[in-house]
Each structure stands twice: as structure tokens, then as C-alpha cells.
Amino acid sequence: MPQHPSITIHGARSSGPNGVSGEQWPPIPIPPVGYQSRKSLPIKKNDSDPLTREDVQFDLLHEIFSDDQLVFTNPRPTPGNSDNRITFGELYISTLYNSPKCSKVLKDKMLETPAFATELGKISLLTNVGRINTTMAFFPEMKTALRTYHPVPSLQKTDGNAQDAPRIKNCLKSALLPSETKNVPPSTPSELKDKLVKGSVPTTSVVNLVFILANHAAPLATVHFHTDGSLNFLDLFIPRPTSSRDRARAFLWHMYHYLESNTLPNPFDDAYAKSSPGKAPQIRTLTPEQAQIENIDTEEEKAWGRKMAEQRNFFLRKLVSMDRQKQDRHSALAASSNALLGQDPADMDSNGDIVDQTYHNYSEDHDEHQNGTAIMGPAPTGGSSRSNPRKEPTFMHYVPPVDVGQTATSGSGQGSRSSMPLHPAARQSDENNPPIGSSMVTVFSQFECEPYETAPREYRGKHSASKHGGSLVSSSLGLCPS
Length: 482
Description:
- The chain has 482 residues and is mainly alpha-helical.
- Among the domains are: 38-297, no CATH class; 303-347.
- 35% of the residues lie in helices and 3% in strands.
- The protein has helices spanning 53-56, 58-65, 88-97, 104-112, 114-129, 165-173, 189-197, 206-215, 217-224, 244-259, 271-275, 288-291, 299-341, 362-371, 424-432, and strands at residues 12-15, 21-24, 72-73, 85-86, 136-137, 148-149.
- A two-stranded antiparallel ribbon has the order 1-2. A two-stranded antiparallel sheet has the order 3-4.
- A hairpin with a 5-residue loop joins strand 1 (12-15) and strand 2 (21-24).
- One of its GO terms (cellular component) is Ino80 complex.
């Protein structure tokens, strides 16, 4: 039996019925939590598929952000306001607003439309715990091939073009307390407890706290939930047949327990939590009938999701059409240039680009050199011209064959040296200046320049290969608009 990829199991040897020694393997335990790894935590959808209320656990988010208990400390109190207590929704949205990575346009929109600020807070919380990863975007005109577009009808009622997940993640990672901007913020639950002992309240920003609890969900499972580890912090955001209100209460309990106090009575305690210090409120399991009435998409949301999916598909078809037209224009331009240069179609590749004929086989070049028809540089040594340009063969001007009587010799001219063709400039110089004495001065110009791809334009010649590449869609894809 093969071993589990992440668990090493040691079996005990035993004797089989025929006396043959064999292995007895203990059964591999199945993880009891609702998710088996962080890879299965993010929402998985195809491009343009809407995120339903069940995907985002809309009822859970609504219970969290609609809680009206003023029990959290405002890290940025308003001058003259003696009451420094706010709700969780106000705390979370204020933390996003004061993030250095939050743009001015986004801040203005949050101030002008409080409903948009709440929707942004809900999407940001899903990104905070890892349910929405950085491959998602929420506007249909997104071009990059590294992300997928998804409409979120229940969380895009005020503005269809929400921020994409990478920008939200950058905003979250820089959302720290004023005292944490110059110091290293806490990163473990034990550090948060130490700050509570010292009376530092709040211990960290609410965004950083969510990151810490998400990263330490497994070891904290038996601390705050059941002793069997069947439930942890991340399971609060996973679609499961459990009460959304109870999960929201357990989430807010964690926020108060680590931000405000772990010794005082928690305002989100239930009877079980009051009788069991350090334990989160219990979460009821729903019957199938009760589960069916939670996270139900409205007809308007379904219609809007289909509309945005069609708009996305239309945008992609238009993008592909523009890319094809661009490639057609390039092919026509290349064909026109080749015709003007008199390029043989046999020298073109399948894309219509000219095949570089500058470098020939070294043995052939050597033979041609003996015949006086071409002079080339050293043999190519292999390797990429970009990674090792010094190994490129030296480009040298083509020297036409020399007629009889136009060779330069040394000595008595009786064939003591092989005949070498003169460069045209050298030939013109000899006509204007007759040779002195009985021997002629051997003139030969070798023009050596940069590697072929970086050579000046005048040294490239008509055989320069135009470089084009990229797939049909990815070549025209750019970054997401601001």
C-alpha cells in the first residue's frame, strides 16, 4: 500500500498465513476539518462565472457587518469624542480607509457611498481569510491572462467595477496601526496575548488579526473549539450546514478575545462560552430544510450575473478580434517589406518572418573563404545570444569575388601567399595611390561590431529577422486599469 504523500507511516512486520513476512499498515486518518488544505480554501470558478451568495456566504457577512454592539476600541479616535467605542463594521472599514495603499479615488467613493464601503469591506474580509485569492478580478474589462473575472451580484449593488483581489490584498497588508508602521507587527497568537498582558489595546489592527488567526487556524482549533479539532477559524467561512448567525458570533468573539481582552467577559459569549473560559460560542448544525433558506440568490442578482457574464464574453471576443487584426496587419507589412527587398519566399518561416541567412555553417564558410567569395567570423559556439552575447559569431562585411589582376600579393607575387580579395574601400585607395616598389601593400578591412541582435542598423543588412511572438490573447493583454 503506498504511503500518504504528507504522512510517513511505519508498519509492523507480521507473518502471513503462509509464513511470509508482510506489512500491516494502520489506516490513514482523514482530516476532520471542513477543508483539507489551504489549496481548497479559495473559491474555484471559471472565468465569467458569478460568485453566488453561497460562495461568499452572504448571510455570514451580513451578520458580521450589521452587528451594532459598540465594543471595539477605535485606534484613530475623533478629537473631542469621549466615547472611543465602535462596531466591528466601522472598525474594519475604517482600517481599510486609512491604509496607505487605499487610493484617493477609492476613499472618496467610500465616503460618498457608505453602502459601497460596506460591500468593499465584505469582499476584503473574504480576501483577508483567503476565500478570494489574488487570481480574481471583479470588472469585466480586465485584460490580463493571469486572473479571472467574476461578477459578485450580492456585493456589487452600488458599483459594478469593484477593485480586483491583488489590489485589495495590497491594501490589506499595509493596513496597520499607527504604532506598527515603524515596528514589526505581531504575527502569532502568543504575541497578541503578551500585548494584552501589558495593557496594549487594541493589540494590532483588525486586518492583521484576521491574517494571524487564518495562518494559525489548525493549532487554535482545539483551543477555542471542540477538543477533537473538527472545527477551526477558517471553517467559519466555508459553505457548511451550520448557522450563519452562530458562525458570525463566533467570529466576532475571536475578534474581541484577541483585540480587547481575553480575561473580561466577552460581549459575544453564549451560555457555553460563559461556562467554558477560552471557548468560542457553540455553532448549531442546520437541518437540510433550514440550510436551504440561507444564502438564497434573488432573481435580480441572477439576471445581473448573466448579464455581466455576457458582457465579459463580448469583451473577450472583441479582444481576440483586435489581436487577429493586429497580426494580419503585421503579416501584410512583412510581406510588403519582403517584396521591396526582393526576398525569396523560400527564406521565410511559417510566420512570414525572414529567416536570418547571415550566419552559415562554419565549414562551408571556410571553403568559401578559400575561394575568395565570402569572409565570415568564427564558428557559432551555441547558447543564447541574450544570455551570452560574447559567444556570438562576429559579423563581417560581405566581400565579393575578386577578378583576376585585383588581388594583393606579398613578396614577388609568385604565389608565396594565397590571394585575398580587397575591400572596395581598399581597392579605391590603390587606384588613387599606386603601390610603391615591386610589392603591393596588402589592404584588408575587417569590420567587427556588436553581436548581431544589438548591432547598429547600418550593419544589420536586409537579412535582419523581425521578431514577433506571443499567443493570440496574451500578446495583447496588459495590466488591469486603475
